[in-house]
């Protein structure tokens, strides 16, 4: 899937997560940091290719991307597996713990969960594409849904751009508008107290 679709899927996954397991009393800072971490998590697995948005904006990003891609075994390998999610999440937690002293009002555990939700949403979306995802590395099999390869989505083509991406946007807007009170109250409770 393209980066735009992954961004939207990550946001929808976070919305669903927040509605299913409402966080208690989070600050606006935590909410913003969580959305940022969720969006980074949503595209993090594709850092295994030098053309990823992750690298494109850095001066020598293309080369850094190539080195990183080689380190994680190439595209759709380690970073697209549960093992990769565990490794990336471990690194993210270390970074958040390191940064916590300069942002004490931010609930780093919630931000961390938002990152993991973003990463998992990436793997779920890529499972719908023709290439599939090696969820259970070191087991090399690439899983896909539907099981029949021909029925899956081709990245960047019409079905993704005209059905999947608009669909994700519509569902996210629908969820946010139908649960507006719940979502705004999560932060409002904090402001009142
Ligand atoms: Zn991917």
Q: Can you describe what's shown?
A:
By secondary structure, the protein is mainly alpha-helical. The protein has helices at 3-20, 28-43, 53-56, 61-71, 82-99, 108-127, 158-178, 180-192. The longest helix is centred in the C-terminal third of the chain and has 21 residues, at 158-178. The structure holds zinc ion. Zinc ion (ZN) binds at residues 45-46, 80, 122, 126.
Question: How many structural domains can be distinguished in the coordinates?
Answer: 1
Distance linking N and C termini: 42 Å
- Give the biggest sheet: none
Instruction: Extract low-pLDDT stretches.
Output: none
Mean pLDDT: 92
- Computed structural class: mainly alpha
Task: Work out the helicity level.
Answer: 55-70%
Shape: globular
Keyphrases for this structure?
193 residues, mainly alpha, 8 helices, globular, binds zinc ion
Could you give a quick summary of the protein structure above?
With 193 residues, the protein is mostly helical.
Topology:
Blueprint: H1 3-20, H2 28-43, H3 53-56, H4 61-71, H5 82-99, H6 108-127, H7 158-178, H8 180-192
């Amino acid at each position: 899937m393209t980066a735009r679709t992954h961004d939207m899927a990550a946001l929808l996954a976070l919305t669903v997560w927040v509605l299913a397991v409402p966080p208690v009393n989070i600050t606006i800072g935590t909410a913003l940091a969580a959305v940022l971490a969720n969006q980074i998590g949503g595209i993090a697995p594709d850092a295994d290719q030098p053309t990823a948005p992750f690298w494109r904006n850095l001066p020598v990003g293309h080369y850094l991307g190539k080195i990183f891609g080689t380190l994680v075994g190439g595209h759709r390998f380690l970073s697209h597996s549960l093992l990769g999610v565990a490794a990336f999440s471990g690194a993210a937690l270390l970074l958040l713990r390191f940064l916590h002293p300069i942002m004490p009002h931010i609930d780093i555990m919630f931000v961390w969960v938002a990152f993991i939700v973003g990463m998992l949403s990436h793997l779920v979306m890529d499972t719908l594409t023709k290439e599939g995802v090696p969820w259970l590395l070191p087991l090399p099999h690439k899983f896909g849904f539907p099981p029949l390869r021909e029925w899956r989505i081709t990245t960047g083509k019409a079905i993704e751009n005209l059905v999947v991406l608009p669909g994700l946007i519509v569902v996210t807007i629908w969820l946010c508008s139908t649960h507006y009170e719940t979502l705004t109250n999560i932060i409002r409770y904090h402001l009142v107290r």
